[in-house]
TrEMBL record:
It comes from the Bacteria. The chain crosses the membrane at residues 223-243, 271-290, 296-327, 339-364, 606-625, 646-666, 672-691. The lineage of its organism: Bacteria, Bacillati, Bacillota, Erysipelotrichia, Erysipelotrichales. This is Bacteriocin transporter. Keywords: Membrane, Transmembrane, Transmembrane helix.
Amino acid sequence: MVFTILLAILITTSSFQVFNYEYQVGLGLLGVDQIHREHSKAYYIDITPSEVNRSIDDLIEDVRTFSERYKYNIAITTSEDDYSNQENGYFYFISGNESNLLSHIIVKEGRLKESFFINDDWVISNNHLKKPSYLIDYLDNRFYDFDSTYKDSISIYPLSKIEEYYPSSGIQTLVTIFVDEYSTQIQETIFDYFQVYNYMNGPSGFFVSELGQMNNVSVDRELQPATVVAVISVLMLMVLTVLKNGKEIGIRYLQGQSTIQIIKKLFLKDIIGLSILFAFTIFCTAFVITDSYGTLLFMFLVKLIPFVLIYVFSILGCLFVTYFLVVKRTSNEILKSSMSIVPIYMLTLILKALSIIILLIPIFTRIQSIEYKQGHINSLTENPMVLNSKRIAYASKSPVDKDYKDYEKALFELVSQNDIAYANHDAYDFYLTVLKHDQYKNIELAMDGYVPPSVHINNAYLDYISITDETNRMLNPKMLSKDKNYILVSKERVNTYYNYLEPYMSNYEILYIQPNSTYVSANRTIAIPAGTIDDPIYFVDNVYSRGIDNFTVSLLYNGETNSLTNILERMDQEYDASYKVVKSRDIYELSIFEIKNDYLVCLQSIGLYFLILLIINYTSIKIYVDGYSKKIAIRYLNGTNYYNRYAMLINGSVFSTIAAFTYLLYQASGDKAIAAVLLGIFVVTLILEWITIKASIKKYESTEVSTILKGDD
């Protein structure tokens, strides 16, 4: 009973995380598929009107005309990244049957939901500054990634209000078109109609995609393997229950009772009771852990129904299999309970080893995620100047071959003149991502004139970077001459980038960076000018370009607002570059929030692991002592020492544990953090196994051995 309750709680909480994450992906990233629930299919187009010298008003008019002409419902999504202004954030404008939003909102003013959409004066948001505003009903407001930063920034409006509420600085826009069925003809119609926004001459920009492609997100919080093993552990409990009643089953069978009579008499009460308890515990747990009490809660409970059915049918299936295994023995075997227990015991040990592996492998990625995010948090904590800065991402609107070199030179001069700390150029990073799309799989790209991603950095800010010379001797960045310029490049890339670097070699000294340098990845070249910085802007790494015909520069800034404004206007006017701004502290807080969730999932996984391990250990011990009861009693009577009485039990349990952890440690080789966690869990596992074995055997010998010796077996 206790195991059933714990299992129901763990399954509900793990499923709760999955449901929350999937709901957040649907609403937080797309903002449409959860809203237009009657439409299961949609196409989306990623559009930036300014790339083709068109305004957002042009796009709005084109979208409205398309909707009226082809009778499709439409949703438009955009965002502003300056979260210092609470009026900004994510904006969703929707058309069609808005009543589908009723399951997602909370109306606290006593207004009937049915009258909610009579007038177009509504706003759905968790931002109290939006008036009139109605809260979005999330299943658990505390869970979402955007809870700490973005939750209050999401707002949903009727499409009729788009001219009024569309943000002035909104740049990139997601247009979603809802259809009844996917078809090549519809996709081509959409592509042809919006062809006017196809700015890109290269392969990375304009295409019409199915919504399902964007929904294909890896749900790393999902604990499906753990759930599977949890169900298996319940089956083991049922096996144990049948074996425990094996003698009585055999006697009733020999007395001529039917299978139905035996099951009804011995197991029906347990099956019904455990099933009701399991379902009731799931229902109560869902109410306790959720903040929603409306349609969304009902949707979550519906998602849990399969687990109840799996539980019930698994118990029934396991019951019948084990039952027929028992009754097929001869009457002599039944009465003497002499059936060989070795195969069943070996099976439990194999299951135990597999369970350990299945349950602990998901922790690998979680620990790696924590390590990565914690390193980022530590670097920001140690550098308040960076933590309190703003990040500005630029995207050029002009072709690379026209303005890129001039633009790069200008940014380089800004570094030298102490206006910025370092500038990052990612002109061709799209090779790593976009070309996987089927629509462009046959396109061949010419590498002539290749410009590698590069970072221009002021030597006053080299503390983040590990630098070596040709002999791999580590260099102190502060000892580099301020009267010289340097190019830093990974040794792995120096030959690849030689043609690009050659023009610089007369004025720069070549040094080398380590692949894991903070803020600078291994495939970057770095040009370092001399000088110091008083009012720095940081151009940071890992910002992807929008395609082959433009480039992206990203920066962090912590100077005066007027100085920032002047630089932004200058770069926009002189180099035709659009930009977005976001505070570094928002990213910092988001990382902290995600780490807390990572720790929570790790603890949950470890807790589930120990619970299931306890079930398996208890089952295997019970199977062993029941199968070898007389031998154990005789050894006990003869004074055989403790270890020899239970050698197979102890050796089998320890061996299966060591085998599983050996495999896990081999897989984790090279990651000290994961290896340390596994070793800690391994030690605790052995201790708990020994305690479980010791306690179970002590109880068995104090209550059962005397009965066996009296001949009651």
